[in-house]
Design brief:
The chain has 9 helices and 5 strands, in the order H-H-H-E-E-E-H-E-H-E-H-H-H-H. The protein is an alpha/beta fold. The protein has a 5-stranded mixed beta sheet with strand order 3-2-1-4-5, sandwiched between helices. The two termini are 22 Å apart.
């Protein structure tokens, strides 16, 4: 539940609770800004979808950064893949890395799908997480030299059939892309998906691996963390 009477965030008419709820609803579920506007209205907060867009753009990255900082170290086996997205009629590529647990490590939107783009993505990925023991990719040859250069000790397994773990991670992106009427710019896609993937990592702890009781505990822990991050929001 949201608390409309809670202390307002400096420079904002509504409370941290309302703003955090709007960010959570938009990034956690396949909801449009108008959908979130209706949810808030039903709870007594009359906010326009334009304002919600500003909130999500401003505070979504803050939540994503805090979630990323609080996560445990990545598993030492990574899966890398790239999927095409259309931005204003032009083809771009969404590069994504997940670890063996299926948690998103990094995403990067680029206009190319070549060795230079692979190198740029791997540099960003390894600056944050270090080098893994195993890297699984599809058969794109552009990965070969960048991996050999940046992670010479890693076991690079280039095999389409081994990369099923990351294939499923693209589905939420496709769903959101459809709801949003496609992304408007590479920067907007990068900001949206960076926050979307981290928030989903927090609230989707691979339910099929957990008992019902463990799942409830994991969900409760996620809400507790979200509440703590809400108190840390800065205008």
């Amino acid at each position: 539940m949201i608390d409309i009477e809670a202390a307002a965030l400096k420079g904002h008419r509504f409370s941290r609770s309302v703003i955090a709820y709007a960010v959570w609803a938009n990034r956690r579920f396949a909801l449009s800004l108008h959908d979130v506007e209706d949810l808030l209205a039903e709870r007594g907060a009359l906010v326009s979808y334009q304002t919600i867009r500003v909130w999500v753009g401003r505070f979504g990255p803050q939540f994503a950064a805090r979630i990323r900082r609080g996560r445990p170290a990545a598993a030492d086996s990574w899966h890398l893949d790239e999927v095409v997205i259309s931005i204003r009629g032009r083809k771009h590529w969404l590069w994504r890395a997940v670890d063996a647990r299926g948690d998103t490590l990094e995403i990067l939107v680029q206009s190319r799908r070549n060795a230079k783009a692979a190198m740029r993505f791997l540099r960003k990925l390894m600056r944050r997480w270090g080098a893994p023991h195993v890297i699984v990719t599809d058969k794109l040859r552009s990965y070969t030299k960048p991996i050999a250069h940046l992670a010479p000790g890693a076991d690079h397994r280039a095999h389409k059939g081994l990369n099923n773990r990351i294939e499923g991670s693209h589905r939420p992106t496709r769903k959101r892309e459809k709801i949003m009427g496609r992304f408007k710019s590479p920067g907007q896609a990068q900001r949206f998906l960076a926050a979307h993937d981290q928030i989903n990592t927090l609230f989707r702890p691979h339910r099929y691996r957990l008992s019902a009781l463990s799942w409830r505990h994991a969900r409760s822990d996620a809400f507790d963390l979200w509440g703590a991050y809400t108190l840390e929001m800065s205008a």
